[in-house]
Write a structure and sequence with these properties.
Layout lengths: L5 E8 H10 L2 E2 L11 H12 L7 E6 L8 E2 L2 E2 L9 E6 L1 H11 L11 H4 L3 E4 L10 E3 L10 E3 L6 H18 L2 H7 L5 H13 L2 E8 L3 H12 L7 H9 L7 H14 L7 H11 L10 H9 L2 H22 L11 H13 L5 H17 L7 H15 L12 E2 L11 H10 L14 H8 L4 E3 L15 E3 L6 H7 L6 H7 L4 H8 L3 H22 L3 E2 L17
Parallel strand pairs: 2-6, 3-10, 11-14
Antiparallel strand pairs: 1-10, 3-6, 4-5, 7-8, 7-9, 12-13
Length: about 550
């Protein structure tokens, strides 16, 4: 293999790329992510092509060096790479090319079941939508009839398939007697001519390809990094996965996929990939988990990567259990800051079974950083410092009392679930398990998983009044007929007191609601919530900042919807 690297930019017919795939000379290296696009993203790709929008270049590395690669491109099995020939490996563009190849080359025998893994490859073009207009590409759910004027994209690349579609469309027009109705939709051209126009556009479509000829894998990856520095957004874990993959069975990206799946199974929701990546970096011994110098970062963690992945998974599992059982974080959507999870996972990597006293110190650390908003303004140096504090505490060298000097932000007066302070207040409320309208314990995690912030429903709706947006006007309660307010008014007489207490609704506020005074209900409940929360804050040894009006900081980095 030559170490001389040559980079060429070319324009290649889509058909020629497909022939390379079918000959085994264009493959996807294992360090790339498998197919992850949603059906909507797949449709948007074809819409972009039809409307003349650029879809971005494909980056390929052509080499005679053996490289472990995937055995599928999207939905379609690939042949083995030919012996003794150079093979091109797709460094960037897997999602796009996999969509184009699998949809346009889809076998007629490919299943079309209720599983998304099958029906997403069957994309149709509604020929009643003029060329260049949005909304022409669609999926049809299994079991539904397919209108004759919906052309499967797999029929566009092969003449025999297109002729079969055209004959079916003609028979449908004659059989149903709808020729005039269909012609009315075509705006001066027939449906078949429109289908032909779309098919010809796809057959003649050209893609910009950047080919890296020969050179070593490290050189190819370096080119990948540099070309992506000003190109599409690429996740940190994808970049480092590319740089660290050594041909082993599992890539970093696949390891993170596995950890994501495990956290979903645990019932706390989907942990963001970047949180898992930061935990792996921290577990490797690297002090700066926010660094973006990809090549140096990859070199720093490469030798410890398998152990770091395993440690990170175990640390995250223990940290999630701690957050759920001892901090009330029933779902990831209520976690104020992602770095709280990284820090706790770092602790549990080092100390597996801390004493009750040390667990209490961790609990106070969580609440103090959440209430103060410490992570909201933390820079790289401060994040490195806090992880060092956690490591020191886990090793028995330091304590976490430094966080007693922070000040807690006051009760939020506007409900916005993007605010870490609002989430912290909701977590405090969930220390008391809410009861449903029948007096049975609710499962907040399932409500949050299904609805996100919408699980906290408005009690009284009056958007022109400032009190309407107060958290005191929200409650985690599944309404019966008539909405949340009516559900509260109709509570069973023998259970009213216990249900109200579980939702932190004082008697005087409820009396105001019964009397039809929604404003007084909110003001009385808000005062009660603020006072009760302030008592909790004082128990943590924190000073409380003066109340502030207006919108809260939308400073949480964990998605809520």
């Amino acid at each position: 293999m030559s170490d001389q690297q040559e980079i060429k930019t070319e324009v290649t017919l889509l058909e020629d790329l497909f022939r390379m795939v079918e000959a085994g000379t264009l493959r996807v290296p294992r360090f790339q992510r498998p197919f992850v696009w949603t059906p909507e993203q797949m449709r948007e790709l074809f819409d972009s092509i039809e409307r003349g929008f650029p879809i971005g270049p494909l980056l390929m590395w052509e080499t005679s060096e053996p490289v472990p690669s995937l055995d599928k491109m999207g939905a379609i099995d690939l042949p083995e790479p030919p012996q003794g020939r150079r093979v091109s490996y797709l460094l960037d563009g897997n999602q796009r090319l996999s969509t184009l190849y699998s949809v346009l080359r889809l076998p007629s025998s490919f299943p079309h079941t209720t599983a998304q893994s099958t029906w997403k490859w069957w994309i149709y073009r509604d020929l009643t939508v003029p060329v260049g207009h949005k909304g022409g590409y669609l999926h049809i759910q299994p079991g539904r009839s397919i209108p004759a004027h919906h052309m499967s994209l797999r029929a566009t690349m092969r003449t025999i398939d297109f002729l079969g579609f055209a004959r079916g469309l003609e028979r449908s027009q004659i059989r149903t007697g709808q020729m005039s109705l269909l012609e009315e939709h075509t705006e001066h051209v027939g449906l078949i001519e429109r289908g032909e126009q779309i098919a010809n556009q796809l057959k003649s479509y050209k893609v910009v390809t950047i080919r890296i000829h020969e050179g070593s894998k490290d050189q190819a990856v370096e080119a990948f990094v540099r070309l992506n520095s000003k190109g599409r957004a690429i996740s940190r874990d994808e970049m480092v996965s590319t740089l660290t993959h050594d041909g082993s069975a599992t890539t970093l990206t696949e390891s993170i996929d596995s950890i994501v799946d495990k956290t979903v199974s645990a019932g706390i929701g989907e942990i963001p990939r970047d949180v898992i990546f930061k935990t792996i970096v921290a577990a490797s011994g690297t002090k700066d988990v926010l660094r973006n110098d990809w090549e140096q970062l990859a070199r720093a963690i490469r030798d410890r990567l398998p152990e770091a992945v395993n440690d990170a998974q175990l640390g995250l599992e223990r940290a999630i259990e701690f957050l759920r059982e001892e901090c009330g974080v029933k779902h990831i959507r209520l976690l104020p800051y992602s770095m709280q999870l990284v820090a706790l996972a770092m602790f549990f990597i080092i100390e597996v079974d801390p004493s009750l006293e040390r667990r209490e110190s961790l609990r106070r650390f969580f609440w103090r950083t959440a209430l103060s908003g410490w992570f909201a303004g933390a820079n790289t140096t401060q994040i490195k410092w806090i992880l060092e504090c956690i490591r020191g505490f886990a090793n028995g060298d330091d304590d976490l009392e430094v966080f007693t000097s922070v000040e807690a932000r006051s009760y939020p007066t506007v409900f916005d679930a993007r605010s870490a302070r609002v989430r912290t207040h909701l977590l405090w409320q969930l220390w008391t398990t809410p009861l449903d309208a029948e007096g049975s314990p609710m499962n907040p995690a399932s409500q949050l998983a299904e609805l996100g912030a919408k699980a906290y429903r408005r009690i009284s709706f009056n958007p022109s009044e400032s009190w309407s947006s107060n958290p005191a006007n929200r409650v985690l309660l599944v309404p019966k007929r008539g909405g949340v307010r009516q559900t509260l008014l109709d509570l069973p007489s023998g259970l009213v007191e216990s249900i109200l207490a579980s939702h932190h609704i004082p008697t005087d506020a409820y009396d105001a609601l019964v009397a039809g005074d929604a404003a007084s209900f909110v003001h009385l409940r808000a005062a009660y919530l603020a006072a009760q929360e302030a008592s909790f804050i004082r128990d943590l040894g924190l000073e409380l900042l003066p109340p502030t009006a207006g919108e809260p900081d939308t400073d949480s980095d964990i998605g809520v919807d």
